[in-house]
Amino acid sequence: MLRWLGHARAAAGDFAGALLLRMQALRLERQVGDPIGESDTLLSIGLDYQQLGDYAEALRYVQAALRIREELGDTMGVGICLNNLGNVHSMLGEHAQALEYYHRSLELQRGLSSARIGTVLSNIGSAYRELGQTEAALDYFSRAVCHLRECGDRRGEICAMSNIAEVRHALGDHGVALELFETALSASRELGFRYEEAGILLYSGEALAAQGQGTRAAHRLEDAVRMGTEIGARQLALQANRALARIHEAAGDIAEAFRCYKAYRELESEIFGQEADQR
User: What's the rounded Cα separation, in Å, for the pair 236 and 239?
Assistant: First the structure.
């Protein structure tokens, strides 16, 4: 029950609250000797730490979940853990390593007809995009949208759609990109997916800035900073502050640019300094 209450908190964007509930669940599962429940909770805790920008702790908990699934001989569970490990390495900027985990995860889950295949396809697309292989990225994102829509995974579909918008923007298809961003933003707001909404505000703001629409971009990015801060998504707030600093600098507003850059540097130091200490 505590783990599911944690899921509800996380779905509402309250990752710190979710973490507290899941830590209580983990203690109980260890006391009663429930390895499957323990693994599920460890994985969820890893995701909470990832959303909060604490990647060292995220890795530690996901690796612990993976060890349990390997000991149980649970192929599906191993595949899920590998996907989550890929996510953490992606957030650390280690995209080649993330891609390796994603492909291993896909092979394990494809054989079992997993409903999670769409999510892994989308993650593979993200890794290819970060590695500069845009055509491969677009292919995987498109496959992901079809699969996620078929499975009824609205959250995953919204994320994959936003990813396609980013690739289309990178390829110069700005009109298509903005249309996709708007569709994904409306859906995330309608369904109350706050983390996804913050991400789309960030990426669509960056796309608008690249097109010279500085005022619209700044409004989007300010909303991304506010929402990212509210839900504890420090990485999103960090990226939005950096983008805002560039917009204000280009507009000649040095004071505002400095304020945003200072906020960016403080968050960066907080996130990566904490991670280095823990390592």
Answer: 5
Three-point CA angle 38, 43, 45, nearest 5°: 95
pLDDT at 279 > cutoff 60: no
- Quote the CA–CA distance of 167 and 137 in Å, as a whole number: 8
Task: Extract the tokens encoding 57.
Answer: 């702790």
With a CB cutoff of 8 Å and minimum separation 6, the contacts of 73 are none
- Exposed / middle / buried, residue 135 (Cβ in 10 Å: 0-12, 13-18, 19+): exposed
In angstroms, how far is CA 247 from the centroid of its own chain? Answer: 24
Convert the pLDDT of each residue in 17-73 to its tens digit.
888 888 888 888 888 999 999 999 898 889 888 888 889 899 999 999 999 999 999
Give the closest residue to 18 by CA, choosing from 41, 59, 48.
48
Contact 118, 156 (CB under 8 A): yes
Please, are residues 143 and 106 in contact by the beta-carbon 8 Å criterion? no
DSSP character for 40?
H
Which helix (H) or strand (E) element contains residue 223? helix 214-231
Can you tell me the mean pLDDT for 190-208?
93
Comparing C-alpha atoms, which of 165, 162, 80, 90 is closest to residue 128? 90
Q: For residues 94 and 10, what is the distance between their CA atoms, to the nearest angstrom?
A: 25
Give which of 3, 36, 1, 40 is closest to 19, Cα–Cα: 3
Three-state SS for 64-103 is HHHHHHHHHCCHHHHHHHHHHHHHHHHHCCCHHHHHHHHH
Per-residue pLDDT at 113 exceeds 70? no
